[in-house]
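Input record (one chain):
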Amino acid sequence: MMMNTIATPRRPVRPKAARGSLGGYNLTERQAQVLDLVVQGLSNRQIAERLGLRFYTVTTHVKNIYGKLGVNRRTNAVAKILRAADEPRAMAITGFSPVTSADRD
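The corresponding structure, as predicted from the sequence alone:
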């Protein structure tokens, strides 16, 4: 005898994001990747292309990063991270280092 069952759609299971300490901001691994590219000067569209994400996904990551850093502008986020990178302990944790004009050439 066959039972009548209705298949319910299931959301894909995603692995729990690795949490980075980044000065206690608790960024996910993906947020740290996006922030690193923001610090390098890439636009949201360029970040999306680089990481294989949709533009709106990157925009959401950036907004969430702003919230965790307590800023509301891209330049403030970059400045905050670069200040944190000047501290040896933060640099060892995050891998971020200040970007100089020589690095961009």
